């Protein structure tokens, strides 16, 4: 902790930040106490300037929402199942009728769910004398409702319809007869409660309220903070209308003067009004503006001082540290940060330099040594395979020479040359899987000369995704050799070896299995135990050799697994990651 010896409280970044915070917050507190009494008056001034805009925006949003609902309504007129119900009802069986009704009901329910302003969506279908509602499902045809709503079908763009105390949108489909009677009507009933709730956003002050007025005052929606009766609110709107039209004005109600802001939607035929006491608007004081400017200027100066101090005492030291980490990130372990600071950053710089020195030491002394040991072990394990096959090759060649099979000797020597050309190529520890499979095929062709077709070998096609996967050299051929020598050598006929390739979600597997009959359950269990308990420093040969090499490269989750084959002999399953070397290896 040498870096902290000269560390003093007065040099602490924490103290500096506390002082800067006090410097910022103290003027704000002082100014806040002074201007607290003027805050409500400032808000009232904003209300007076934005009241008309609020009403206009509200009505515009409502207009856009109604227009969107209209689009859905007209789109529903072209619904396939609605057309089928209206035109082909008689030709449909009960199942088709029920299915069409349910699908149409789903369409209507979807429209209803698309907007909070929709109370219900119904399709009145005259040819089948049925009404299908999103809320109530299928019911009897309502003739009066149909006649009242269909009167609007000729108009381009469905207008709002006031009927029976409700507000509706109607869209009709024209039939082919000369009277142009509609086949069906799509009706959307708007939720008056939601409309009333929506205009409640204008309740910003006591005695304020809002009015949504329909054409010819046939329908009035009032949302008032003091629960005035509709007639009183309507009188207030009428006074405003007589004086200033549909936009702004003043009116008197119950001995109190009000400011009224309104807007009109020509497309919907709606009028929206917001009213609030005029006293709320006229109360702001002039001195508020002066103090607002003073507060703004002082705040800017304080913020500039704080920004400069933060940059000097925090940002610049952090930037030096970040640059150091970036150099280490790019592999430069010779980086060193020099600093005369006695605060926390000085300590961090010293610890950073110490960390980089230790990291470099660990890489050189531990990691590199371990990698070199693993590569040496890998070379040693791989070289153990070559003498074993060499002995067998001399035996086969000797046998063929004694029998006088010169043509076979020539073919055998050619294949043997290709085999050892692969084995003795030490350019890389790993090769692509397709080359490893090709080498295994050459080996089986050599063995077929020895066993004179007593044993057949079948290779499945290698999947395209597995062709270029990098694997250790000589992992398939020794397993096939094991099947030849230990499982099938004594069989006089019908010996069989199969090599399959399995592509799983994150792994690829190479499966080698035979139909040998000499493997006992005890031998299978013993070999499985050996694979599971292979320890560092232990002698590894044959399949243990392959298992160990694969785990050295791909990790403990990979390697060999053995089981009883469905063919009756041994099944060896080689598992490696699909993408090659794992990140944690």
TrEMBL record:
Pfam families recorded: HAMP, HATPase_c, His_kinase
Domain of life of the source: Bacteria
InterPro entries the record matches: Bact_2-comp_sensor_kinase (IPR050640), HAMP_dom (IPR003660), HATPase_C_sf (IPR036890), HATPase_dom (IPR003594), Sig_transdc_His_kin_internal (IPR010559)
SUPFAM superfamilies: ATPase domain of HSP90 chaperone/DNA topoisomerase II/histidine kinase, HAMP domain-like
EC numbers on record: 2.7.13.3
Subcellular location: Cell membrane
Cell division as UniProt keyword: no
Keyword Cell membrane in annotation: yes
Record GO terms (molecular function): protein histidine kinase activity
Membrane-protein topology: Multi-pass membrane protein
Keywords annotated in UniProt: ATP-binding, Cell membrane, Kinase, Membrane, Nucleotide-binding, Phosphoprotein, Transferase, Transmembrane, Transmembrane helix, Two-component regulatory system
Transmembrane segments annotated in the record for this chain: 12-36, 288-308
Domain HAMP, first and last residues per copy: 312-364
Protein name as it appears in the record: Two-component system sensor histidine kinase YesM
Natural source organism: Paenibacillus harenae
């Amino acid at each position: 902790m040498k870096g902290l010896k000269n560390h003093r409280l007065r040099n602490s970044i924490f103290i500096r930040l506390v002082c800067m915070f006090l410097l910022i917050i103290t003027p704000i507190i002082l100014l806040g106490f002074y201007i607290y009494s003027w805050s409500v008056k400032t808000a009232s001034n904003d209300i007076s300037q934005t009241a008309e805009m609020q009403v206009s925006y509200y009505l515009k949003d409502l207009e856009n929402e109604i227009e969107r609902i209209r689009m859905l309504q007209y789109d529903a007129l072209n619904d396939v199942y609605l057309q089928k119900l209206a035109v082909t009802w008689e030709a449909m069986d009960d199942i088709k009728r029920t299915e069409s009704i349910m699908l149409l009901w789903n369409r209507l329910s979807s429209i209803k769910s698309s907007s909070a302003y929709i109370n219900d969506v119904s399709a009145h279908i005259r040819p089948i004398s049925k009404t299908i509602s999103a809320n109530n499902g299928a019911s009897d045809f309502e003739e009066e409702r149909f006649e009242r709503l269909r009167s609007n079908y000729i108009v381009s763009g469905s207008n709002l319809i006031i009927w029976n105390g409700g507000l509706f949108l109607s869209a009709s489909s024209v039939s082919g007869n000369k009277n142009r009677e509609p086949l069906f009507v799509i009706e959307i009933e708007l939720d008056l409660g939601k409309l009333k709730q929506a205009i409640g956003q204008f309740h910003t002050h006591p005695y304020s309220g809002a009015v949504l007025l329909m054409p010819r005052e046939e329908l009035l929606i009032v949302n008032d903070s003091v629960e005035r009766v509709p007639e009183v609110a309507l009188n207030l709107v009428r006074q405003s209308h007589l004086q200033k039209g549909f936009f702004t004005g003043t009116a008197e109600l119950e001995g109190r003067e009000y400011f009224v802001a309104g807007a009109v939607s020509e497309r919907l035929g709606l009028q929206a009004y917001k009213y609030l006491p005029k006293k709320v608007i006229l109360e702001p004081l002039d001195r508020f503006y002066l103090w607002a400017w003073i507060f703004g200027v002082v705040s800017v100066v304080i913020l500039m001082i704080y920004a400069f101090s933060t940059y000097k005492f925090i940002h610049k030291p952090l930037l030096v540290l970040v640059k150091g980490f970036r150099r280490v990130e790019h592999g430069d372990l010779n980086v060193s940060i020099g600093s005369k600071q006695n605060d926390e950053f000085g300590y961090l710089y010293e610890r950073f330099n110490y960390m980089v020195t230790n990291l470099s030491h660990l890489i050189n002394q531990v990691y590199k040594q371990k990698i070199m040991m693993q590569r040496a072990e890998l070379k040693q394990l791989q070289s153990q395979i070559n003498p074993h096959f060499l002995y067998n090759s001399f035996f086969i060649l000797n046998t063929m020479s004694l029998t006088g099979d010169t043509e076979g000797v020539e073919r055998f020597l050619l294949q043997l040359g290709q085999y050892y050309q692969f084995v003795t190529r030490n350019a890389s520890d790993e090769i692509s899987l397709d080359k490893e499979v090709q080498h295994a095929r050459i080996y089986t062709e050599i063995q077929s000369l020895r066993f004179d077709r007593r044993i057949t070998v079948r290779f499945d096609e290698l999947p395209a995704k597995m062709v270029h996967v990098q694997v250790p050299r000589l992992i398939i051929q020794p397993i096939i050799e094991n099947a030849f020598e230990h499982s099938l050598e004594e069989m006089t006929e019908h010996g069989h070896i199969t090599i399959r390739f399995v592509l799983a979600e994150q792994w690829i597997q190479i499966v080698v299995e035979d139909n040998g009959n000499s493997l006992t359950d005890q031998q299978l269990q013993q070999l499985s135990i050996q694979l599971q308990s292979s320890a560092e420093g232990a002698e590894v040969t044959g399949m243990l050799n392959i298992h160990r090499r694969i785990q050295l490269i791909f990790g403990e989750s990979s390697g060999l697994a053995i089981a009883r084959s469905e063919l009756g002999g041994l099944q060896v399953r080689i598992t490696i990651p699909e993408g090659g070397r794992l990140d944690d290896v």
